[in-house]
Task: inverse folding
């Protein structure tokens, strides 16, 4: 699994293209490397966790395991939205503090598995970003839109800072 963990940290280290799962949140398109995606679920009953960070405020039962359910909208300083018929949970496996951890991510809609090219990627701009730049690995231009590849390591390791947005 260490090679997978390295790929998460260094998107383009092994290839000029990366296979991703794209999804929508608050009108923006995001992508996660397909290798970390375990499953896509319909919404499940949630159990609130008192005192938890706002963007990871509940847990779900995933195949008999209790896993945290994160709402990346809140980490990015977006407003939470009501679930719709298209809302899904993407279950991913990431390394947090050197331990493989399952996490559910709440999304507005899951789109497709596609391939993104290294040549179309660029770092987030240092000026004019409404989100913390360390929360974004890169932006990939596809057609007339940008796809955001979030830096899950930064988001989950800085969970003590709940401000979410850049100042």
Result:
């Amino acid at each position: 699994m260490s090679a997978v963990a390295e790929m998460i940290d260094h998107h383009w280290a092994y290839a000029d293209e990366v296979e991703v799962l794209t999804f929508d949140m608050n009108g923006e398109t995001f992508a996660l490397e397909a290798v970390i995606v375990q499953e896509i679920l319909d919404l499940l009953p949630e159990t609130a966790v008192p005192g938890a960070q706002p963007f990871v405020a509940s847990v779900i039962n995933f195949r008999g395991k209790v896993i945290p359910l994160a709402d990346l909208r809140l980490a990015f300083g977006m407003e939470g939205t009501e679930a719709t018929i298209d809302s899904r949970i993407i279950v991913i496996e990431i390394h947090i503090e050197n331990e493989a951890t399952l996490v559910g991510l709440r999304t507005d809609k899951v789109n497709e598995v596609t391939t993104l090219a290294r040549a179309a990627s660029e770092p987030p701009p240092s000026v004019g970003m409404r989100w913390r730049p360390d929360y974004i690995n890169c932006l990939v231009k596809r057609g007339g839109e940008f796809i955001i590849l979030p830096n899950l390591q930064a988001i989950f390791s800085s969970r003590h800072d709940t401000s979410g947005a850049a100042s």
Observations:
- Residues 1-9, 160-167 have pLDDT under 50 and may be disordered.
- The two ends are 36 Å apart (CA to CA).
- The longest helix spans residues 2-9.
- Helices lie at 2-9, 72-75, 152-157.
